[in-house]
Design a protein that fits this description.
Elements: H1 9-25, H2 30-67
Length: 71
């Protein structure tokens, strides 16, 4: 999946919540459970990538702000 294909953070998070809800509810076959687990892992990675990117942007902004301040 490319960055252009990745869902927004909010969409990935909401789908991840639904995956967890379905897994916790039970009543699925082993194959269904495994497929949902794998999708949940993918969604968790997508969310983490968004958060890591946001953290990097924030860190860069804070570093830049620090260099513009008078001593």
């Amino acid at each position: 999946m490319t960055a252009e294909d990745a869902p927004s953070y909010e969409r990935a998070r909401d789908e991840l919540v639904e995956v967890v809800r379905r897994l916790e509810a039970g009543g699925l076959t082993l194959e269904e459970s495994l497929a949902l687990w794998e999708r949940g892992e993918e969604l968790a990675r997508i969310c983490q990538n968004w958060l890591d990117g946001a953290q990097a942007t924030l860190d860069a902004a804070l570093r830049g702000r620090g260099t513009n301040e008078a001593p």
